[in-house]
Amino acid sequence: MTAVMEKADASTRTGDVPSFDVTIRVRRFNPESAGESGVESRWDEFHITAYGTDRVLDALHKIKWEHDGSLTFRRSCAHGVCGSDAMRINGRNRLACKTLLKDVNPDKPITVEPIKGLPVVKDLVVDMEPFFASYREIMPFLITNGNEPTKERIQSAEQRERFDDTTKCILCAACTSSCPVFWTDGQYFGPAAIVNAHRFIFDSRDDGAQQRLEVLNDKEGVWRCRTTFNCTEACPRGIEVTKAIQEVKRAMITRAF
Amino acid sequence: MPTAQGGTLYRGREGMWSWVAHRVTGFAIFFFLLVHVTDTALVRVSPEAYNAVIGTYQTPLMGLGEAGLVAAIVFHAFNGIRIILVDFLAKGPRYQRVMLWIVLGLFVVTMAGFLPRHLMNVFGGQ
Q1: pTM (2 d.p.)
Q2: Handedness of CA A174, A116, A25, A233 (dihedral sign)
């Protein structure tokens, strides 16, 4: 009877969402067959149909659920918070769950590889233990002296602002595994550990700055940073990683005198 | 644990490639200095030997090499100042890309002044 119903019938039917075809090239590695075949890792191509709202993670899901169930990758929240699905998409570290397919040129095959510098366990899954070992070494917890206050530890908005940028880290390892120094020297603490040290060093409530600076004032500490800015470009949370590292370097110099 | 390396080259941006260029020019300059200290030290051995060695440098090929050497030093010098500013200025990291374009601009200006004069000397254009 009404014009609204006729109109809905004519044009806006569900299922009319425009789709496009895309090729995904995934770097595969199977630890069980690696020894026998002599081939360490290989590229696999998958052709799938995707929508404008699909992310690389949706494409990987589609491959795993509809094409090849053996494809292995990590993901938990799938919404850019847990930091599980950092991978190298078209040559750059990104979170698969925050990268839309239409933003990485779906006209060409999209390459998906595990992040560099960490041992690959299977397909896109890497062993994160060296990464977390560095994180633990900078003591990522509150260190205080003296008596505990009876109420909360008060901090002004300006004091909180000082380290606000580095509180955003989700430990996805996109920065550390984008660092050319980390690729060749696995002993280097890496950007993520320094970012998390920065978060406590510049926290007015924390008294452990001296200890953390001593840990990082090492041959493999902050001085290994060559300011290539790959970490800043790679961070999915937009943390100015190199800036944080430079601030830790400068704190080391200024607090020593 | 098994590793599967290889794959594509990491697509770093200006920061990474300026670092690569800085490292490459640094190595080139180091090896030049190695040779340069050696040939200059020859003057202590005998002036004739020194002249003979320096004489072999007066070829067009070496002239092009000198142009490359100056290019490497000019880039390394200007980019070195950029790295110092990134290290010591609070706003350095934020403006690193702008500073790289300034470095490349200065590089082009310096080489535009040097190359014509140098190549005229090398190839005898007068």
Answers
A1: 0.87
A2: positive
